[in-house]
Amino acid sequence: MIAEGVRSTGATADLKVVDECNAVLLKKYDAFILGTYTWGDGELPDEFLDFLDEMEELELKGVVTSVFGSGDSTYRLFCGAVDELEAKLQGWGAVIAQESLKVEFGPTKEEKQLCREFGEKMVARLNVVK
């Protein structure tokens, strides 16, 4: 749905699964959006850890990005992995284009629209930053 929002602006969006790609691929894009679910008590899932190690080796200063994810509000840290990922990106100098999008488990009808708008706003923000 986020990719639909990106594409609705005329921009392109490639979807990748984190444990099936290498972080070096991020460098070929003008911007990127990372998505994760939250595991346990607010942690990133295991399949994201190797990707993060690879990202740490990249020069991300000034790169435009956004983060989204799902979580379970019964835990103390709702979508804690989203917050952790955003903090790491900021620490590496990336430009966070917009407030992270957080949804409970799967998106509701209203949240699906928010997902599309999230993609649209990412493109608009990228055009402002460039």
Question: Nutshell version of this structure?
Answer:
With 130 residues, the protein is an alpha/beta fold. Helices cover 39% and strands 16% of the residues. 30% of the residues are buried.
Number of helices: 4
Helix content: 25-40%
Sketch the topology as an H/E string, one letter per element.
HEHEHEEH
Which descriptor suits the 3D outline? globular
- Average pLDDT: 95
Oligomer: single chain
The radius of gyration is 14 Å
CA-to-CA gap between the ends?
24 Å
Main sheet makeup = 4 strands, parallel
Residue runs with pLDDT of under 50 for 5 or more positions: none
- Please tally the β strands and state the result: 4
What is the strand content?
Answer: 15-25%
Structural class: alpha/beta
Q: Could you explain how this protein is built, in words?
A:
Helix 2 links the parallel strand 1 and strand 2. The radius of gyration is 14 Å and the shape is globular. With 130 residues, the chain is of the alpha/beta class. Helix 1 packs across helix 4. The protein is 39% helix and 16% strand. The protein contains 4 helices and 4 strands, in the order αβαβαββα. The longest helix has 21 residues.
